[in-house]
Amino acid sequence: MNGHRTEELVIVGGGLAGASAACILGREGRSVLLLERDVGARHKVCGEFLSVEAQTYLARLGIDLDALGASRISHLRLYHRGKKAEAELPFLARGLSRKILDEALLEKAISHGAQIMRGVTVRSITADERASWVDAGSLGRVRAETLFLASGKHDVRGAKRPISGSINDLIGFKMHYRLSEQQRTALDGAIEVILFDEGYAGLQLIEGGVANLCLVVSQRGFEQAGKSWDSLVNQVTRECPPVADRLRNAIALFERPFSIFQIPYGFVHHPDWTEPGGLFRLGDQMGVIPSFTGEGMSMALHSGYIAASMFLRNGRASTDFHRKMAANVRQQIRLAFLLNKAARFGPGQAVLFHLCRTWPSLMRQVAAFTRIRVGSIHKTAALS
Ligand SMILES: Cc1cc2nc3c(=O)[nH]c(=O)nc-3n(C[C@H](O)[C@H](O)[C@H](O)COP(=O)(O)OP(=O)(O)OC[C@H]3O[C@@H](n4cnc5c(N)ncnc54)[C@H](O)[C@@H]3O)c2cc1C
Questions:
Q1: What is the pLDDT of residues 319-343, one digit of tens each?
Q2: How do residues 200-246 score in pLDDT, each as one tens digit?
């Protein structure tokens, strides 16, 4: 085909999955072109809760969470209809905004020699056994010998995810708040999870003493609450007076919340015989773990890590990678899917809360079962 450029490795999407793969492949001296549609750093809808596995991957990639100002989170407070259950987390979690984290990882990828092109939206992908063709809008057509698709929740024409069987009537919101010193002290060290009608919310500190309120609600719940962010927050704070205290007179740092629709929780990519080799799906393109367990970022990093590692060892055998990933994450996604269901509806919430209150160690065990094990990587994949 005429009028195109050819690249050895192309990564579509510079979130955690794409950037982590770029770091590893660049570090190994491979020629990597990463295409990211955002022109600069931006906020993403996320609870911004970093599990121990996510922290391990980030440390291996040379990301210093202390230097970035991440908060420390050691316990969980669960609220349901004004009642509280509390437990120590099985690990020290961290809180850091995605705007800071994703940018730090992209900078790291650049320092490892990856070429990052921003403001480039990939419009479509076609793939055959020999290569993938990427329609990169203003950049023109790019022939990629191997393609890593890491566009997160956004599907690209020609490579859409078959998301049947997943839950996708949910809406996610995120807002950051500046709290008073007293409110900050009350929240310090904890993640507060509130179960409310048709949804759940998480409140925690991130860098700079800022609080992140992230909320997942069904479409029906959103409509019942009054179809606006303010009415939804009113509902949550009405049902949970301690969280009302945390947010009283707090200053919202964005004009309106960031939101995301139709999150396909429970999706796992299973390769079939028609799938072309040399197209690796990473992060949310490979599997979407419900956010209740705070493992999505670790899964994204895990996939970037394993894909890069398997590519370095086996070349374009992406089907093997997808099989391995599905085996690695299937159980965790299934359990998180069930928990997500329970956390959404009244009877499930009551059972979940009762179990956690009478048996706090259950919360730790559930957290252990939904965690993505840190993978071993190709031994020549040199990482700091
Ligand atoms: C409500 C909610 C709360 C969550 N809370 C947590 C939490 O607390 N802890 C946790 O670990 N996980 C959480 N997650 C999950 C986590 O946010 C995701 O799993 C993670 O961001 C996936 O990373 P990714 O790299 O696959 O995708 P993303 O981070 O979404 O990155 C994809 C990138 O691709 C770019 N892109 C998209 N389309 C194109 C295109 N066509 N061309 C070029 N670039 C493109 C985007 O701009 C973006 O930068 C949460 C998710 C939701 C929905």
A1: 999 999 999 888 888 888 888 777 7
A2: 999 999 999 999 999 999 999 999 999 999 999 999 999 899 999 99
Q: What is the pLDDT of residues 90-125, one digit of tens each?
A: 899 999 999 999 999 999 999 999 999 999 999 999
Please name the residue whose Cα sits nearest to atom 52 of ligand 1.
Answer: 46
Residue 336 lies in a domain: yes
Pairing of strands 141-149, 279-281: parallel
Is residue 240 in some structural domain? Answer: no
pLDDT at 325: 94
- Cβ–ligand 1 distance for 197 under 6 Å, the answer no
* CA 46 – ligand 1 centroid, Å: 8
Flag whether 244 is in a domain: no
The CATH number covering residue 29 comes to 3.50.50.60
Is there an atom of ligand 1 within 6 Å of 13 CB? yes
Supply φ then ψ for residue 192, to 5 degrees: -105, 120
Q: In Å, how far are 15, 141, 257, 357 from 229, measured between CA atoms?
A: 26, 41, 7, 30
* Whole-number Å distance between alpha carbons of 191 and 94: 10
148 lines ligand 1 (CB under 6 A): no
- Number of domains composing the chain: 1
Contact 107, 134 (CB under 8 A): no
Q: Whose CA is nearest to atom 21 of ligand 1?
A: 297
The angle at the Cα of 350, spanning 348 to 351, to the nearest 5 degrees, equals: 65
Tokens at 47, concatenated: 């609870």
**Residue 180 domain-assigned (yes or no):** no
For tokens 């139709």, the residue is 262
Enclosing domain of residue 39: 4-166+264-369
Separation of 381 CA from ligand 1 center, angstroms?
25
83 Cα–ligand 1 center, Å: 32
Residue 48 CB–ligand 1 contact under 6 Å: yes
For residue 375, what pLDDT is reported? Answer: 58
Spans of the chain, pLDDT less than 50: 1, 376-384
What per-residue confidence (pLDDT) applies to 366? 66
For a substitution probing ligand 1, which of 171, 284, 289 has the most ligand atoms within 8 Å of its CB?
Answer: 284
